[in-house]
Queue: 2 jobs
Job 1
Amino acid sequence: MSITMKIENLEAKIGDKQILKGLNLELEPGKVHAIMGPNGAGKSTLSKAIVGHYDIEVLGGDITYKGKSIIEMEAEERALEGIFLSFQHPVEIPGVNNAYFLRTALNAKRKHQGKEELNAAEFLREMKGHLEMLGMKSDMISRSLNEGFSGGEKKRNEILQMLILEPEVIILDEIDSGLDIDALRQVSEGINRMKDGKRTFLVITHYSRILDYIEPDYIHVLKDGKVIKTAGPELVPYLEEHGYDGIKED
Amino acid sequence: MANEGLNTAVSGEYELGFEIDIETDIIEPGLDVDTLKFISKKKEEPAWMLDLRIKALKKWETMIEPHWAHLDYTPIDYQSISYFAAPKEQIDSLDEVDPKILEAYEKLGISLDEQKQLAGVKVAVDAVVDSVSVKTTYSAELEKHGVIFCSISEAIRDYPELVKKYMFSVVPMADNYFAALNSAVFTDGTFVYIPKGVRCPMELSTYFRINAMNTGQFERTLIIADEGSHVSYNEGCSAPTRDDHQLHAAVVELVILKDAEIKYSTIQNWYPGDETGKGGIYNFVTKRAICEGENAKVSWTQVETGSAITWKYPSCILKGDNSVGEFYSVAVTTLAQQADTGTKMIHIGKNTKSTIISKGISAMKGQNTYRGLVKINSSAVGARNYSECDSLLIGSECGAHTFPYLESKDTQGQVEHEATTSKISDDQLFYLRQRGITEEDAVSMIVHGFCKQVFSQLPMEYAVEAKALLELTLEGSVG
């Protein structure tokens, strides 16, 4: 079996506090991995460690992606290699036109892949279908990046970036928080459209609601900085009923 | 984290620091009546001008150098500066400018060859090197429209009535210490007159270059927009990289009559000195506009990236009823630069309106101060002002300061003021980097976003230049 990303015995801290304490996880191509666990278990820390966030100091272990260690790679290199994080709280950047940002990001990626950069007209053509599918008004891309966006608009904009950048590993950090039912459906449709049998999804969530829309292949339960259980989707109803306390370590 | 790379990212190289290799006529340092006589003689000025210069010097000698600004520098030794320097072999015929100067201007991106300019984007240029204007382009074509575009020295000789009427009318001779100094020793600068009802057919511009060592540049610019006329004017500047500070003390006067409009844009890129504060231009400038008539409009747009010290408050006296004053500013201080800049809006006429948009960017050890006055006289019934002053900090050693002053005698006036200070946050940088954008590009994207309101006021080709300049100033190689 081939592995897209392998996390081995990862230990990491934020500030003075060690959060990840020997975490092991294997992500398979084309699969949806859900990470569930109580508050403070280290779910967001795990996603930050994968993308190379500045908060994280790795103390030990390794993350390999397509067979190469990425621990020493800059955040932008990891992004260009195909690792994408949909942020739980996308930051606002005043005055930076959303379309300009999206095109810059896309062209950085295309350049990295040795492809021609897209001009403004070609880019807008690419965007049109995505915007419709996500139920985004076309003026959304002429506004400043995330500035004054509602919670739902911010999440749609994250998914829009995912659709454009076509990453290989997609981390969705609490993608369903702040979404009403319509937005949840549209966002899920965007995510499901990206499933192609090769891309890997890491869905980080508190609640099982999102898993009704994006069907997971694996459930990993995270507790106290480690993955304590890995199972199939049948674990979800059990967790709903018994919570995390009843989970026995594998 | 990111801050490690940030300092190298904001200590951009000064690219215009080359020296033009020409011979220079330069007088001995020192300032007295004889200096003024020398300058006046070199300029072939009429006697009345020399008398005014001497009067200004006498006033200046009774004044003291102001130190109320948020600027830290050792007092200037005015006797150690040479007050006149000119490229040698300066010949009146416009075709005989030293090729090295033409070449230097090409290098600065400014063509003094009318034939070489692209069709459709004609820009008339007055090129000033040290104390003299070396060439003014398109004067003949502009003359057909009745527009006078020449050096101030020529104007004193050829249009004495206009000069006598308007010079010192907006910035009085002894308005302040540096204006008084300039009034005594000013050497060159630009003169523009737009006749009644004429829309100036092209952009006008002046490019100031300090080249000689140990000199100051003291230019004087006077622009008169007669009734119903319109002109867009741009100035740029640069200087060689030198270890000593050089003084630049300019005066700009704008007169806007009834229904006329002046748009005045500046891209200031004097040599900023190094990161320890060694070298760089001391920029002490007085710029003021008066909206004399009804519905007159003036707009100052400035992008200040250079100079070791900037002391500059382009102001608007809104005398005519319904007149409008605008001030759009981006001031960048990095390395050890200090800027104390802002504006004064003096509302006198009824229903006068002013807008102030000020963006200060500080990086490394840069100190950036906004200082602005909005004054509404009792006569200014219905006056309105909107002010917005935003500061952006990059790194933790820099500073931003805001001093808005308000004097309102009209109880019906409307004054709004907003001020923000923000830091380029690690979260903003990380967000962009997670999308594959390099740290350097991310910084420039955030900074451009911050400056957008001001850049959109610049004529297009200057907006492009301003963006590029900002990139150069704030970006080096990320290590």
Note: DSSP finds eleven helices and 23 strands in chain B.
Job 2
Amino acid sequence: MSIIEFANVSLTMPRTKRRSGSGRKQRLRRFAGETSRTMVPVLEDVTFAINQGDSVAIVSGKPLVRTSLIRLAGGTLIPDSGFVSRTQIVVPMIAIARAMGPSFTIRQNAYLVGGLLGMKPGELAEKLPAIIEFADLSNYLDRHLRGAPSSARQRLAWSIAMAVDAHVYAIDQMLVVGELEFRQKCWSAVDKLRENGATFLISSDGAKQYRRFCDRGLYFEQGVLIADTTVPEALALARKARREPLGE
Amino acid sequence: MLVLRDLQQQYTKFRLGYLWSLLEPLGMALVLWLVFSVLLGERALGLSPYLLFLSVAILPWWWFTKSVNASTRIFRRARGELAFATLPPQIWVMRTVLSSSVEFVFSLPVIVLAIALTRDLPGIYILFFPVAIFLQFLLLYGIGLLVSSLSVVIPDLARVVKIVMRAMFYLSPILYSISNIPQSLHTIAAINPLVGILGLYRIGWWPEEHTSAVALVISLSVAAGLFIAGIYTFHRLKPRLLKEA
């Protein structure tokens, strides 16, 4: 049974153009109304399906492609054309820690982020002890995030995301976080979820994580889905593309 | 309920500044009262007691500008959150409007103070006061949806809105009464949705203040039009808005 389906999905994203010329020239051009934002194509006619229990690696040289795919899968981005359909709730794990406020306490941040991920206050109150325990932050619960260890953000983000009542996770660059100890804790949590049939869509910078967690690889080149294969094969394709300069 | 928590979170920042939401409009009302009532003297502008007349309109006006100006910044501020939040993005607009509304409710003691100072109790029509609050809330939500989504596409809109708001201050019956305007212009003035709403706020004290029923209907239907336009625009621009996050 497919959980996430992409059908002919195309997407462009706004990107800031790199400016050239001196500062004065730039100012003049801006004065003349030239905007620095342009739309760049990110995905083109992408079609694939993710089934229950899959753990899919997104292999692409462009971080924007990976992040966009994760966001599309999580429903926090709407494609220009084509459809993305989901049959279950997908937890988009994208830079969650960035939304936390340093002047809020850990507890407030947990409520804020949990709420943004769609959890109800009652549900959160119930799960808060487990969340804090997983993040190992019980000493800091009512202290400002500013005063907590620097890894607290990531730890909290992970534990809240894990607490959401869902079986599908879309993870963007969040596999390598915190200290070694906590990382291992997260990884074993992911392993456990996988054993229980949870579905993962993973984007990462390192090939190592792909090999460890994924059993299927999607290889993208210039936003086009080139291959839907195993992880080693997708990684090999990526390596080959990197060695050959573009346009040949 | 998620909104409420968002709000609460926002308010922890402002707890120290609660008094400000009283002092700000109060100060403004006092200054304007001084200028237009004491200094300019007997030029009949508005209705008496002028201090009360002013503060009844200043508070909603304050709420209006705060909310609309904040709407232009909503999605620039929520950038990081939109990337992963599975909530519908309208929530952010709702949150902004709600938190400015709470501030408005907190500032209502200013009116009580003005009543105490002028010893002028409202009549039965004061029942329209909550109605006006409700209508203004809907209007602000509509404008919030419109302005917040448009200002993502057009960043310059924030500046334009500021100027428009300044113009609106003088174009709305805040300093003056609608009866100060020549009769022939009443219908045109009513295109400004604030005319109808401010009239409802004041009707408790000055029953004669409320404009003709036709003008009221025009005001309110413009407000409803803005509300619908807001919902429509927001819906259309939603994909674009998410992309900017």
Note: Helices of chain A lie at 23-31, 63-74, 106-116, 121-135, 152-163, 180-195, 207-213, 231-243.
